Amino acid sequence: MPSVRSIHQQLGYDISNGLFNSDDVILQNEGKLSKLFSKDFLKPNSIFYIGDRPFVLFYENPDDKSELFKAIWNINEVPVIIIFENNTTTIYNGFEYLKETKSLSVLGGENELSDFEYFKIVTGQTWEKYELSLSYKKRVDFKLLENIKVARSILINKCGLSNYSANALLGKTIFTRYLIDRQVRIGFNSEPKVWTTEDYCNVLNDFDHTLNFFSHLEQKFKGNLFEIDDPAQNLNQNALNVVIDLLNGVELINYQTSMFDVYDFSIIPVEFISNVYEMFIGEKEQAINGSYYTPLFLVDYINSQTVKKFFELSPKSTSCAVLDPACGSGIFLVETLRVIIEKYNLDNPSQSRGSTKYRNGLVQLTKTNIFGIDKDESALSVAIFSIYLTLLDYQSPRDIENFEFPALLGSNFFAGDFFMVSNSFNEILSKIKFNFIIGNPPWKRGGGKGKNLEPYELYIKNRKTFESKTETIAAISNKEIAQAFLLRAGDFCNSETIVSFIVTSKTLYNLNAKDFRKYFFKNFFIDRIFELSPVRREVFDKSNDPAIAPAAVIFYRYAHLKSTDENLVEHFSIKPNRFFSLFKLFLIQRNDVKSLKQSLLLEYDWILKVLLYGNFNDFYFIKRLKEYYTTISEYALLKDCLIGQGVILNGNRKLQDASYLIGKRFVRTKEDVEAFNIDVDDNRLWTEPLALYPRDRKLFNPPQLLITAGISTMFRGVSAINYEKEIVFKSSLTAIQSSDINFLETACGFLNSSLFSYYALITTSSAGVEREETHDKEKLGFPFKTDIAVASIVKEIHQIKTNLREVSKKIMSNEKDDIQIQLRNKISELDVEVLNCFGLDETEESLVDYAIQFSIPSLVKSNSSKLLNGDLKFNDPYLGQYIKAFTDKFVESFLSVGKNFMVEVWYSKHLIGIFFKIQEGKKLNETKWVNKYDSDIIKSLIGLGHEKITDLIFMQKDVRGFEEDSFYIFKPNEKKVWHKAMAYLDLNDFLDAILKAGGQEE
């Protein structure tokens, strides 16, 4: 008879790959899913996990589906719910609740069950198909934030409330709903009883009654619970009516319906409520303060690497002091307190949670471990409120009735600027031995004007004065406040304090931040850099700021004058994948983790950008190019060429005479300049007599190479030569003016080549980090050598492009397709010639090819990336180039000692394994392919001693090992992981392992 167990078997789930029975889970579960176990009817039969994240819940004949669906949606953790009842299987979307039917939306039935097979889930095929259905805009946290945002806007703009009063009213309302949903008895003007939302709305219908109720809450719970100065003056009945509509789930504005009648604040994680602060501060305040919304997945990650790890490594510790110097809504501190409380519960299993001792213990844990600073008092109110809710989460409804909140403002939370060294918090916090300083400091750029310095500017200025006689002096670039935060945190560090900040990635790469990096790397031990630039479009996809903000998490310690040179730095770079886009689940692959000595950061300022998209093979390649070749700018200066940007028209300073440019042909950047060709229109003339910077008139004389600031979608430079006509152009174009046509054509060929695409990705400060452009210094820093063949091809491409432009003007022409084919072939010829020019070996060529075929297309989300990253077929010759890297290294050496090096490929739909076998006898090298089922490969790997197959293959992207007469590697059936560039990395790993084994034997 069909059952949930038979569905497990059909989908390929078992205990070896992530399936847990509920009874196994509940014993270890103190997290978000624990709320599903609070009532028997919510408890699933089983759960399928990937890593530590639940992805599928299984239920068999559940009792109350409407309550179950509401609870699952509110918990916002599990995307897929499979219910088996009455011999029917239905698959539900855990992220979408349909208010009208009181149900989760349906993803499918038995016919769609195969979409959720094990291999389809872990390889991402499932999520690719259901991506739209699982959209973030359907989830409870999005709906909650949107409802609060709209209600707050109405309270401020239509009801006349101040920002603070609107925040406080909403905060008190959420707190009251929390008490209602937790079934805490409220004794207001009556005997204590469990309220309903209707009871609260009845209070809100009477203005004086409402003021008395708020006063009652403050007196009963004490603490600092959204205090409103003179509420009779700062609130009004219209505002209370808005809250009533919000609670009753009616339409608020613009057809947006409140979901407050569906929200369950006894289930919704406190951190979601804390994150409402992102909407509280609004777009205008965010722009002013530079405060960025902190994604919960980054909070979880930092928490796992700091506080959680601290208790894992120090199990006897009972406290962990943490400071967030830009705490905002307190999300970091909420999660920190949760970990500390759970450690306390683990250490005190027999202590009754209803006892006075337990309640006092929670208060003491908060008072001794949780500290925050913020300029925004409204933000501090949210932070303190969130801490209070966290404390209540660990108590029963009856215990909550007798709980008094600790006063935290002024002792643990401080309203003030972190850089005000005279503020009272400095003395209080200097006495605390912090284990961690964590947070997401503002990313604001540009301080005060004139002599009116911002506090952080004044702090850096004073620090420079203090350090004026030392080897390195504090410096920040572009008045970046995040850089100042990184330095200021050191003032509160002891020798063991670890700082973990989310900062803009630009800090690591910007050309003008070199002095800051030098100081920072010299004075602080950098433990880990966790780089998120490659997934920047997904990191802050819920932020108020429409800009694509590149983020990195830096873990570091103050060096206290010790040398940092020998310190080992871990570097992680997260690459685009379906799991991260949908679930913010980090799949950190082996090749995305590097370790290096900190001295390299000081010696090679550009190495961090290389490691972002490359590896140490790329480092050695770029190092060779930089050391062995002159650059375009160096060669240009040697030949007395003129280099400069075009005309700047506008500005605050006095304009200068530019009349000598009038009547010259005007070339527009976007419309007229393309790679290899410029459309010079004899009828489009320059007419402006004045300009801020008119430039040297010689710059506008032919011949010159024009270079745009932007690069193509595939990261190629965009440059072209003006051979004959005098032209004028604006500052968005840079020109190299020279009579040496061969030089200009060669430089044009280099900048427009695939090698430049690779170079831009691997070395330039903005490409792949913030926006697709490069600075003049970076483009002109490209290696150069004269090459007649390159110059000749560029001349031919220029002519082909000219012909194509003329043909495109004709209404009827069959020549265009032929010319475009000719153009593509000639550009391919150029790419090959440029690589030959710089003498690339096979390893270096593979690095360039990998960037062009996979790295860049995945960043720009090109369709070609999906095509190129497809699976391999049985006997696919593509795998031959991977195998060749190994056979080239081993075959001859083994043949010389009378042994044969044989390759055996295990092939399946989702996995490929390669065994490299050493056998007796001088046979010809051969490759044998064997068809296998996925399940057979999994069983074989378990037999080889690899238990956590899912984590190893689909997260690390490979499993490798040694047998007596062979070594092997298994990876997913994806082209990019079997590229030749990966072969050289894998080969190096095997060689290192062989050398280490040999050393141990000696």
UniProtKB/TrEMBL annotation:
Residues 369-532 form the Type II methyltransferase M.TaqI-like domain. Keywords: Methyltransferase, S-adenosyl-L-methionine, Transferase. GO terms for molecular function: nucleic acid binding; site-specific DNA-methyltransferase (adenine-specific) activity. The keyword Transferase applies. InterPro entries: DNA_methylase_N6_adenine_CS, MethylTrfase_TaqI-like_dom, N4_N6_ade-DNA_methylase, SAM-dependent_MTases_sf. This is site-specific DNA-methyltransferase (adenine-specific). SUPFAM superfamilies: S-adenosyl-L-methionine-dependent methyltransferases (SSF53335). The lineage of its organism: Bacteria, Pseudomonadati, Bacteroidota, Sphingobacteriia, Sphingobacteriales. The keyword Disulfide bond does not apply. GO terms for biological process: DNA modification; methylation. Its EC number is 2.1.1.72. It catalyses: a 2'-deoxyadenosine in DNA + S-adenosyl-L-methionine = an N(6)-methyl-2'-deoxyadenosine in DNA + S-adenosyl-L-homocysteine + H(+). PANTHER family: DNA METHYLTRANSFERASE A, DNA METHYLTRANSFERASE YEEA-RELATED. Pfam families: Eco57I (PF07669).
